[in-house]
Amino acid sequence: MKTILIVExxxxxxxxISFALESEGYNVLSAFNAQEAYEKSDEADxxxxxxxxxxxxxxxxxxxxxxxxxxxxxxxxxxxxxxxIISGLDSGGDDYITKPFxxxxxxxxxxxxxxxxxxxxxxxxxxxxxQKLFEYLTxxxxxxxxxxxxxxHLWDCKGEFVNDNTLSVNISRLREKLKDSDxxxxxxxxxxxxxxxxxxx
Length: 201
What we know:
Layout: E1 3-7, H1 11-23, E2 27-31, H2 34-40, E3 46-50, H3 58-65, E4 73-77, H4 82-90, E5 95-98, H5 103-118, H6 128-139, H7 147-158, H8 164-179, E6 185-189, E7 193-197
Parallel strand pairs: 1-2, 1-3, 3-4, 4-5
Antiparallel strand pairs: 6-7
Helix pairs in contact: 6-7, 6-8
């Protein structure tokens, strides 16, 4: 069951979204400010994040959360100005919805985003650890991530320790499996780490 964290200080809207998501079979967590968002973000598979919060902007929250996790983020915003939308996406957001909105539209966006994040590797035969590694790289597509970030993420997934050598072996195996597929490739750059790109060389 997927867990979605709703970060929205409007209690009525937060409750309505929660009810709609629970009706669709999602596990729901609620936060009403930045501090609660930081405390609960590790438990979530997706964040629905209001841009305007009482103690900190959603854009700032997204940037900070992006330092430790790559869960999908959908922004809720009452402003449809182009620059505000760009700022949200540039901070690490994956999608945005302008208030007011219909809950059916939000549910469709959530399902689409989960599909996009979780079905990238359907044509590859991957081990559980390779799958987690692939999902992490593809969710950070076209961005370099360090070995330390990858190790921290893989460890956080199940609370299982993944050492440096295991990571090297799995990256090598994953790169080999990607070689003959249309799923892109893993680029390595000394000092920066690894990047997944859809551009095949």
